[in-house]
Automatic annotation (TrEMBL):
GO terms for cellular component: chromosome, telomeric region; cytoplasm; nucleus. PANTHER family: HISTONE ACETYLTRANSFERASE TYPE B CATALYTIC SUBUNIT (PTHR12046). It is found in: Cytoplasm; Nucleus. Gene3D superfamilies: 3.40.630.30, Histone acetyl transferase 1 (HAT1), N-terminal domain (3.90.360.10). Residues 31-187 form the Histone acetyl transferase HAT1 N-terminal domain. It catalyses: L-lysyl-[protein] + acetyl-CoA = N(6)-acetyl-L-lysyl-[protein] + CoA + H(+). It comes from the Eukaryota. GO terms for molecular function: histone acetyltransferase activity. Its EC number is 2.3.1.48. This is histone acetyltransferase. Belongs to the HAT1 family. Transmembrane segments: none annotated. The lineage of its organism: Eukaryota, Viridiplantae, Streptophyta, Embryophyta, Tracheophyta.
Amino acid sequence: MALKQKGSADAAASAASKRRRVGFAGIDAGTEANDCMQVFIARNSDDVGSEDSISLEPFDLNHFFGEDGKIYGYTDLKINVWISAISLHAYAEISFKETSDGGKGITDLKPVLQNIFGENLVEKDEFLETFSKECDYISDVVKNGTPIKHDASDEDDLAVEIVRVELQGAAAFLYSRLISLVLLLVEGSTPIDITEHGWEMLLVVKKAAAESSASKYQLLGFTAFHHFYRYPESTRLRISQILVLPPYQGEGYGRRLLESINSIAESENIYDVTIEDPSDYLQYVRSSIDCLRLLTFEPIKPALGDMILSLEGTNLSKRTGSLTMAPPADLAETVRLTLKINKKQFLRCWEILIYVHLDSEDRKCIDNFRACIYDRTKGELLGGASGTNGKRLVQMATSFDEESSFAVYWTKEGADSDDQTVEQQPEDLKTQEEQMNELVENQIDEIVEVAKNVRSRGKDKLTA
Ligand SMILES: CC(=O)SCCNC(=O)CCNC(=O)[C@H](O)C(C)(C)COP(=O)(O)OP(=O)(O)OC[C@H]1O[C@@H](n2cnc3c(N)ncnc32)[C@H](O)[C@@H]1OP(=O)(O)O
């Protein structure tokens, strides 16, 4: 890590100006880490020190820096970090005009950077050497792994492979170097405990085009997944972390990782596949893939067709009864047995597949669809479409998501009316209704987004 102090002016003048500032300025307001820190990928030694190299956009750097995410005591602070694409080592260059304690101390940057980059963080000379010394670092892991076969589509780059490795030895070492990227780019992530048995990784790697290239393989992304025992004698696969490096995102590698996990699950007769806290975008990619698989899955077709006819033929705006969109009970099991899609994910896909087949111009039909989502959501949150079981929904601002965090709490509504201490006011009902509608709208937006992708990518399957 290099500490550069730029523009060190005349010491006496500087000290005098500092004294003046201490005398008249308020307490140091600090600098947000996001405003002064940048992270780059260095593919070769020429990229080191250059702000033109590939820039990563970490989702949030502030949370690494104290409670308020701020850095104190620096003027014109700049922290540039380069991560080697070859060895995943990191080198940090820190520059600032001056430091002064403006009432909040001077943040010690070294431990914070070590928290993020751990042992990957090295000095410049060592970092530069990695480009010649660690050329085989990724190849060594790849050659001990098993390539996953897949039917290449026209979109696929044939130089890209998916390789399966057990999280042991060199692969475990590679994961430990990947942790800093995971911390920076996967929101809310924590390192997995690789000492536990049953962890594996899939790596997305690209063979270098030229023999002369420093490294034979370039790492584009990875997923870490775990085998969980399921009583009495099966195993579930749980995807714990998945990351495609920013320059390569949106090129189909996340999809290929998920498809590879599905093919492992099918060929090894795994119980089902789950994902730990998927991000919205990962959920979107996953649902798109699963819906496309389900479009050609014959056993769901009769029930899906019946459901679509019911929605087209009913008028739920009269609300004399309710229509549930749930699939027949045994269908989720049939889907799990063959496609290894877990029940919760199948229920999501089921609603998307219904929407895919509806005529979006048919107002009544779309209203019916919305009414079903509303009833399902209300039932899940408040304990049944026809009653609330005394449960109430309130919007709560949390650090997780201020806009859409809700809490359900119980009132004595369901008990004898004499016991009831809180009366529900009409205005409470209104906000509750508004919140329910907001929740339903969010779900419908997600359904529409995936349905759009499925309609465009599954055109041939829809007309078949
Ligand atoms: C459990 C967890 O780890 S949660 C955290 C997940 N990870 C992160 O958030 C880290 C940052 N993000 C990432 O690493 C990546 O963006 C990921 C892993 C979420 C997704 O991987 P990517 O490679 O970016 O996605 P991919 O390119 O495969 O898919 C992108 C798009 O192509 C679409 N697509 C491409 N091919 C297909 C196909 N054959 N069928 C369906 N959809 C396809 C996807 O649906 C998606 O659609 P869009 O163009 O409308 O956005």
